[in-house]
Design brief:
CATH architecture: 3-Layer(aba) Sandwich
Strand order of the largest sheet: 7-8-6-3-4-5-11
Order of helices and strands: EEHEHEHEHHHEHHEEHHHEEHEH
CATH topology: Rossmann fold
Number of domains: 1
Number of strands: 11
Radius of gyration: 20 Å
Structural class: alpha/beta
Shape: globular
CATH superfamily: HUPs
Number of helices: 13
Largest sheet: 7 strands, mixed
Strand content: 5-15%
Length: 328
């Protein structure tokens, strides 16, 4: 028998067993927006005085997050990094098109676009092939480039908060992996907010308590177009394997993933799980080339990866603003 909305008895678009809650499209959208605001306040992520840069990939999570923040009235703009990943069907081009389509429907916001091959002469797969970091899949290079450029551009463009669309499934997969390997340093730092400091922007994850199916449903009921395909290099990734294991657990025990994550945060905050753990203090230096903080003297890892003749481009590599283009 089809489920009915708990609030209005209309047909439900989603049944959230972990909450024992079924909602129609309108009430589900309202619920997502209200819960996001609750998480923002609970974890003290940011206020309406902050300038927020949302890292968007063209996927459901990041575009849904951008949509929610705009509905809540936050000053939130988007940042898209064109990585030059083809995958046989123009993966990066399609992802960028989705971000541009969303920005075009929201004239109150701006989408900043940085084309990595255009800025540095190589796509992510090409960088991976050339460097030792690129052995096997280019995921390591991709992560390095995104972390460096998102932080650099947040600083250069005057944003003090960098928001990502990581959902509960993402967070729990990482938590599970780090727990299995007892990576205490990573566990101690896993939190919905990483504070700013030493040249790093504040990083926040407002969707950290939403299941992936919830963010996907929100994108659908809000008519947000997004790219359905995963990155062509993600096949066989360890995190995907852990997600599959956790999905089996969730199927048998609804709410297991949410309980795992919330109990971890509770043990961390209220029970002092890592109270005695002291992170080794490292001295940070500004990179001699780009100025970003780095533990190594001289050049940061990102700048060392670039060919010497390309390194001067880092300080001048700035994104185009889609809002200005769209308005002509």
């Amino acid at each position: 028998m089809p489920r009915k909305c708990r609030k209005c008895s209309q047909p439900a678009v989603i049944n959230m067993r972990q909450h024992k809650l079924a909602l129609c499209a309108d009430h589900f959208s309202e619920w997502i927006v209200a819960q996001t605001e609750r998480f923002i306040k609970k974890y003290r992520m940011f206020t309406r005085e902050d300038r927020i840069l949302v890292a968007v990939s063209g996927g459901k999570d990041s575009l849904a997050l951008w949509d929610v923040l705009l509905q809540l009235g936050y000053e939130a703009d988007g940042l898209y990094l064109g990585l030059g990943i083809d995958g046989g069907f123009g993966y990066s081009d399609e992802s960028q098109a989705m971000c541009e389509a969303f920005a075009a429907q929201h004239p109150e916001t701006t989408l900043h676009i940085l084309d990595i091959p255009g800025a540095y002469g190589e796509s992510i797969p090409q960088m991976a092939t050339r460097t030792r970091r690129g052995r096997g899949k280019p995921c390591s290079v991709c992560g390095l480039v995104k972390r460096h450029e998102m932080n650099r551009l947040a600083h250069d463009l005057g944003y003090n908060v960098l928001a990502t669309g990581h959902n509960l499934d993402d967070e729990v997969a990482v938590l599970f992996q780090n727990t299995l390997n007892w990576q205490v340093g990573y566990l101690a730092r896993q939190y919905p907010v990483l504070p700013e400091g030493d040249g790093f922007a504040r990083k926040v994850k407002p969707f950290c308590r939403f299941y992936e199916r919830e963010t996907a449903t929100y994108a659908i009921v809000r008519d947000i177009e997004y790219i359905y395909d995963e990155c062509p290099f993600s096949e066989g990734a360890t995190t995907i394997y852990y997600k599959e294991l956790l999905n089996k657990l969730e199927a048998d025990k609804p709410g297991a993933k949410l309980h795992f994550y919330l109990n971890f945060l509770r043990a961390r905050d209220k029970e002092g799980l890592f109270a005695d753990w002291k992170e080794e203090k490292v001295e940070l230096h500004p990179c001699e080339n780009c100025g970003q903080p780095t533990t190594a003297p001289g050049l940061c890892t990102f700048c060392r990866m670039l060919p010497e003749e390309v390194r001067p481009r880092v300080r001048t590599a700035q994104p185009i603003a889609f809002k200005m283009i769209a308005r002509g």
